[in-house]
Amino acid sequence: MRNVGIRYIRLSFPSWSSSTVGLGYCLAVAESCQKIEMKDNIKNILGVSLAVGVIVFAFSAWVFAKSFLKSSDPARTFNVSAEGEVVAIPDIAEFTYSVISEGGEDIVALQRENTQKANRINEYLKTQSVEDKDIKTTSYGINPRYQYYPCPVGTRVCPPSEIVGYSIYHSVVIKVRDLSRVGELLSGVVENGANSASGLTFSIDDLDKVQSQARDIAIQKAGAKAKATAASAGVRLGKIVSIDESFYTPFYQTRALTEGFDGDSFVPSSPAIEPGSQEIKVSVSVRYEIR
Fold this sequence. Notes:
This protein has 291 residues and is α+β, with helices and mostly antiparallel strands. It is 44% helix and 30% strand. The chain has helices at 2-71, 107-127, 182-191, 207-233, and strands at 77-88, 92-103, 135-147, 162-176, 196-203, 237-248, 252-254, 278-290. It starts with a helix and ends with a strand.
């Protein structure tokens, strides 16, 4: 009986060890299978991503090519040129007046004299309903006046020049919106101390509006010329491909007759000022497609 029990124990022990080994093997296989499955999933994700990227790239290339073909110039085109002109009456005048003072070496007194005249003119303009935005100082300066001496004969050393006085100038440009008062204002600034008035010019305040009218005329003429050209050539007129334009605005300048005199000693009568007219021109070059 003792020998049989010993044999039973020996037989049972190997059986228990085999079950343990088998269980470990199954766990190892399951872990390996899980890793393989994860690798397959990653490959699938990468494959899908690559496919989507290729599709997006191909679609983008197709959209770009389509846009490029639309934006590229047609192979068959022709150009026509035309000019539009509008005659307009100027409604703005500008002129410059200056207060010029010359004196001795007392620069403070000379500056006070120049300032008083300039302020008197400014007050006069305000009483004439000229707005602050239409009065602009363009220059102000104080310069010495020199006395030069000739060089003595037979010597290389010349006596130095000396300051014998100073000159002060104060220049202002004003804009006049009522052209019927240009001559009156020209005389008024002289009566109040200006001793130089010049640079009278005329312009159009809303120039863009007049240029737009001239542009419309030019494009209408270009369209009519393009239709006539296409009909003569026996082709169909397509859409406009491009438009180039250029402007021409004449600049009129009139010199006032009050320049270069002493305002304290001579007061001219109001000059007759006529603004005349201005021709505003717009030239266009239009490129059409031939269908």
